[in-house]
Amino acid sequence: MARSGPMSPEQVKIGSLDALQVKGAAGGPCVILCHGFGANAFDLAPLAAHVKARPGTTWIFPQAPIEFNIAPGMRGRAWFPLVAEELARLVASGKDVSFSEVVPPGLASAREKLEELVDKLPFARNQITIGGFSQGAMMATDLFLRSTELFAGLVLLSGTLICEKEWKALAPAKSGFQFFQSHGMYDPVLPFENAKRLEELLRNAGLSGEFIAFPGMHEIPEGVLKRMAIYLTR
User: Does the residue 35 lie in any domain?
Assistant: First the structure.
């Protein structure tokens, strides 16, 4: 992909993942945003030009490793299989398990690939804000909580609570950290109540931050982007 300007993304490969990158200036911070289930790296890339961040910010939009058919002639990407599918399998096997307890198959493998990408960047983790939308937010949460080094920020856009037992055990190590989270009150894909349970888990572990509940569905409205910009430039 040819670059047409300072905010035009270029296609790169970082570790084993393809990604879109908008280069910032030397010494600037980095923002990594992971797309949701069925989308691809191009889905969130416009945010680099739309969201005000600190001067010199480099933006990275990783491409999820799993490719699958959405519809005839249409391909999508996923970080791991749908949580709902794993939940149905566990329930069918006779296990008493809730949505928030599911540890999706493929999560660990995807996390390793995302962590490899992070490690190959010329940024320390305290210069990197990690985040994502929907399934991408789940990936960001999992990597953030398992990281032995603190990231600069955590942005959760319409994410949800999974791996509850594991995340609950890991979260206290990040006490005092400030996160940013948003969710639509009428989200038909990932229920609002589970997003609030994720917020509660983080706050109970000593983290603080901003939770924006907006009167919408599975989306990122303009008001959320404005508050996200404030978070990134704090």
Answer: yes
148 domain-assigned: yes
Examine residue 133 and state whether it is found in any structural domain, yes or no: yes
Taking the alpha carbons of 191, 192, 198, 200 in that order, is the dihedral positive or negative? negative
Helices (H), 121-191: 135-146, 164-170
What is the identity of the amino acid at 159?
G
CB atoms within 10 A of CB 93: 8
Confidence check: pLDDT of 96 > 70:
no
- Give per-residue burial for 125-163: e unless 16+ CB within 10 Å, then b: bebbbbbbbbbbbbbbbbbbbebeebbbbbbbbbbbbbb
74 exposure class (CB count in 10 Å sphere: 0-12, 13-18, 19+): exposed
In a domain, 190, yes or no: yes
pLDDT in tens, 39-65: 999 999 999 999 999 999 999 999 999
pTM of the model: 0.92
